[in-house]
Design brief:
Helices cover 39% and strands 13% of the residues. With 351 residues, the chain is an alpha+beta fold. The structure holds fe (ii) ion.
Length: 351
């Protein structure tokens, strides 16, 4: 399968990964003549999707965390966020426990597989997709750091609840597609404090999870909020969640901008270590994600255009590329292993 822009759907493309809208299946894997659904997909904010075509039939996109588990996570987050919005002070801790255990088990099974978060996310369900992804990345990083299962639960729970305070912000400000003015921005910036205060009322939520909601916008150079804490004064759970939060936000389609390719988001995080993000955690994080996920379309330094077809474990920037077109736009099919051709690099990621 390969990633394409919904905008560029063509007649001979078949859907390779099911699309869900609010937990319900909207289009199933295998649906043909996808271009018929273009307008509907764009209307719910699906800007990218995975298809199968003549070039990509045998390319597999690894799933470290099963779609079923992610959906389970999203459903639990949605249910609990809605309760909090209504001012109800209880939380389905068992539900969170069960999904976090599933995530831990799947990370264990796929230990050598790089995380690919470039999944299909509709802008309309961003909050829940994002919350579950931040939880997954936090747990993955916690595992590399050899955290105990109990700490992984608290960190994962913190990741999933990090933005809970946003449900207490007026939707008009939260979903505004244009630039926020100073007042609106100051309202948004209250979400860590609001989330923390709500979680404090919930005895079953560990203080270590609450701290993630409170401090995930703190930055190591002191430029973050709400307290402007610096370096190790920011709890390490929050320093981990900050990386997960920014990385997933950048690689997600939003109403006001398209997703960044993974390598660009990774580069942004890398360029801001020591200023915004914790160096030691960034180093570990970058070893766990695939820079050029399978199915991405790229242009090589030779001018050839291709699709990433396989990863070389331990070499995240040197995957195997299926060339489909030469620099003059002529069809050319050839598998090129970038480990064997060190003089060739990925010059541009199209998707
Ligand atoms: Fe946030």
């Amino acid at each position: 399968m390969r990633l394409v822009l919904t905008e560029d759907l063509k007649e001979n493309m078949t859907l390779a990964k099911a699309i869900y809208d609010n937990g319900n299946i909207l289009l199933n894997k295998g649906v043909k003549n996808l271009y018929k659904y273009k307008d509907k997909l764009l209307a719910i904010g699906v800007k990218h999707l995975y298809v199968e075509d003549e070039y990509s039939r045998d390319i597999k996109v690894d799933e470290v965390i099963k779609e079923k588990t992610r959906r389970k996570g999203k459903a639990i987050i949605k249910k609990n966020f809605e309760k909090i919005k209504k001012g109800v002070f209880n939380i389905d801790i068992e539900g969170f426990k069960s999904v976090i255990e599933d995530i831990q088990a799947e990370l264990e099974i796929n230990e050598d597989v790089l995380l690919n978060l470039a999944d299909i996310k509709a802008t309309s369900t961003y909050t829940y997709d994002h919350s579950v992804n931040v939880g997954i990345v936090c747990i993955a990083l916690g595992k590399i750091l050899n955290y105990s299962p109990d700490d992984l639960f608290k960190l994962g729970m913190g990741g999933m609840l990090h933005d809970v305070g946003k449900v207490l912000i007026p939707e008009k400000i939260l979903n505004k597609p244009d630039r926020l003015d100073d007042y609106e921005y100051s309202v948004i910036k209250k979400h860590p404090q609001l989330g923390f205060e709500h979680l404090q009322q919930l005895e079953t939520v560990s203080p270590l999870s609450r701290i993630v909601a409170y401090s995930h916008h703190e930055r190591v150079n002191g430029s973050g909020y709400p307290r402007g804490q610096k370096g190790n004064n920011i709890h390490e759970f929050a320093r981990i969640a900050a990386i997960a939060d920014v990385f997933d936000a950048l690689t997600s389609d939003r109403v006001y901008r398209d997703r960044w390719p993974t390598y660009r988001a990774a580069e942004y995080i890398m360029n801001n270590t020591e200023t915004l993000f914790d160096y030691a955690f960034v180093k570990k994080f970058l070893r766990k994600i695939s820079f050029y996920p399978n199915g991405s379309e790229v242009i090589l330094s030779t001018g050839d255009r291709g699709i990433i077809s396989e990863q070389n474990i331990g070499f995240p920037t040197r995957p195997i590329v299926r060339i489909i077109e030469d620099k003059d736009g002529k069809k050319k099919i050839k598998e090129l292993d970038l480990i064997k051709h060190l003089n060739i690099v990925v010059e541009k990621v199209i998707l």
